[in-house]
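U., I forgot to send this yesterday:
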Amino acid sequence: MKKKEKEFVSTGVHYKPSFGDRLISVITYIIYSIFAFVCIYPFYYIFINSISSNQLSERGKILFIPKGIHFTNYVSVMRLEGLFDAAKISLGRTLVGTIVVVFTSAFLGYMFTSKNMWGRKFWFRLIAATMYFNAGIIPLYITMTNLKLTNNFWIYILPTAISPFYMILCKTFIEATPGELRDAAMIDGAGTLTIFFRIMLPVIKPILATVAIFTAVNQWNAFQDTLLYITDKKYYTLQFVLYQYITQSSSIKALLNGSSSAANIAASMAKMQTATSVRMTVTIVVVTPILLVYPFFQKYFTKGIMIGAVKG
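Result:
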């Protein structure tokens, strides 16, 4: 009997799906295809309108296929004042802010798993409470003003340096790692910082990559802090400049068209800037860099966000 069972297992069983199974599979593929289309189409729509005839785009004639393809919109937008300075600020806040948040989240998450930390439950609950309670915009603005952080680059970094949500993610991930690693290092005489930097950081790379991509996206896309705390143009971020360009697209259209020679305008009416072309092109310029970040972190992303979610 055992020999027959082994033969049955080794040869395998060819399962023939029923009509109901095939129907469910087809419906599932259709639903997810529609969902994927809904997610991708807005970005595709903006892109094809940014490279199509500006006059057709302005009249809403570009829906699925680009017409009158040209790239002069991007050349014109690159001449907009303050765009590159804003890009430097956005890049700086994204890099520095991501490094700070990743480090603080990982270190606090590590410390809150240590039984030797004084008052760790109290401090953990105190930090976690800030996820649910805040003083509001006006008290926050007064606080930032008193700290001399308005019109200061560090307004983008310090107020969000500690994120309770990311700290909890790191804490959960660390709790799921083998405790023997820490115990063995302590027996060998390693201190808290040595264990953190040389033992834990290499082990928790997946969650660090997850926190990094979340933070980078948040930092790159943020503009409300610029709106509230910044009046000096040299600290404007790319997203805030995009916000201004979208709200002032009509006047920018006239500025860009006025910078072209009369001969060029007469020769290429389809390429004249419109309010729609300005909005579409600047949106692509601002969004594309952060889209390029995700593929580098993708292999860590799923593991990092899912580990610790289900235990048992």
